[in-house]
Design goal:
With 220 residues, this protein is of the alpha+beta class. It has six helices and four strands, in the order E-H-E-E-H-E-H-H-H-H. The chain binds nickel (II) ion (NI). The site of nickel (II) ion (NI) has 6 residues, from strand 3.
Length: 220
């Protein structure tokens, strides 16, 4: 069966509502490949729209958020799974259509189309995401009330070239950060999903885009 067929996302894990925190494996984030997450659960992308690769009239945005003081709170596969799943779930909840994303131990990026009504929900969406993630990770670390997130930065994309370059930049950001040599080998980004759902011509167009002309603060 195709790995896209039978998935659903569960939002954040049940530790939010009490109970024993899940165990974690230490060490560097491995690069799990294919249709399952590092915890063996199927990847949760079946409900995502296929990428459009067109700027949206309601607004297409590139967003970066880092952790407070660039602290590495999301260092394990489990934590990265929760960060990635949380981003996908909250974006869907607020009607933002993700085109590319990547999640790391101390920051994340995404490219997304805003809902028809505009981008006013961006800040509330990120507040919701950050509050849930902070609550979860602080519980895991027995650090109630600890500040986890720093302010987000967003750029509205209005030119096709800069849009396509940011798609490439985001899909391949794990390469930029030295975590993998091939974007689709990094489990916590959109590269594998993009390569499965976009046409070969679209994949070629995006991956051929130069990214050196875009100005992204990404020294994490
Ligand atoms: Ni980055």
């Amino acid at each position: 069966m195709d790995c896209m067929d039978d998935m659903n996302y569960g939002g954040l894990p049940p530790t939010q509502s009490g109970g024993k925190p899940p165990t974690e494996s230490d060490g560097k984030p491995p690069h799990s490949i294919g249709c399952v997450n590092s915890d063996g659960k199927p990847r949760s992308t079946s409900w995502l729209h296929a990428p459009t690769h067109r700027l949206s009239s309601s607004g297409t945005y590139f967003v970066t958020t880092g952790t407070y003081l660039k602290q590495h709170h999301f260092t394990t596969p489990l934590r990265l799974d929760v960060l990635q799943r949380g981003l996908l779930a909250v974006a869907a909840e607020f009607g933002w259509q993700l085109e590319a994303w990547c999640a790391f131990s101390n920051h994340y990026h995404f490219v997304a189309h805003s809902p028809e009504a505009g981008a006013a929900t961006l800040a509330p969406m990120l507040r919701t995401l950050h509050s849930k993630l902070a609550h979860w990770v602080n519980k895991l670390d027995s650090a109630p009330g600890r500040r986890v997130w720093h302010n987000f930065r967003d750029t509205r994309l209005t030119h096709e070239k800069s849009y396509l370059a940011r798609l490439h930049y985001t899909h391949a950001n794990a390469v930029h950060h030295g975590l993998t040599r091939v974007p689709n080998q990094y489990a916590w980004c959109s590269a594998a999903w993009f390569e499965r759902t976009a046409s070969p011509a679209q994949v070629e167009t995006v991956y051929a885009m130069k990214t050196d002309f875009i100005n992204v603060e990404d020294d994490y």
